[in-house]
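Quick log. Single chain, no ligands specified.
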Amino acid sequence: MLQRRPFITATLAAAAWLSLPALARAAAAEAPDVLIRRLSGEVLDAVRADSSIKAGDTARITELVNRTILPHVNFRRMTAAAVGPAWRGATPEQQSRLQDEFKQLLVRTYAGALVQVTDQSIVVRPLRAASGDRDVLVRTEIQGRGDPVQLDYRLEKTPAGAWQIYNFNVLGVWLVDTYRSQFAQEVNARGVDGLIAALAARNQGGGK
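-> predicted structure:
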């Protein structure tokens, strides 16, 4: 069976994704740290104003994710990295199913993360990157009640000049790595189809 990692790591990583609305018209013109700083506040404000999202309405959350978040994420790269070597041997249909189920898994996690959004703010640290870099690390911190939470983003620059996220680091734990170990266990035991089935069962079963 697919094991469940500590919910706090997944929740914070989901909250990270939810700080990235899809204003694609500006993405290519802005540095990655500037993009994240500007968009973080806008999405947090939108979440606070939407009672349905705060209540965990999956349909509203899915709509938000599809409209605003996924255009800024290299989701195929994230899924491939999480699945590991088995991805290269998967058929196109299996790869499509894996992406769909992995997306649903993260959307379900968003429901838990959004309920907790209250008075948090995002502080973006100075970007340490050269002007020609196409792969950068943006360090941020979630501040609010309790201790600040470290939140880092890995972004890549597309040929079109836009920045896309392909991994998150929450409190020293990379999201893709968190899932890779448990996905590998499932693939080793039951193959790619077994992983797909385990993800589908988890998504349908209501578990975090």
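The longest strand covers residues 135-143.
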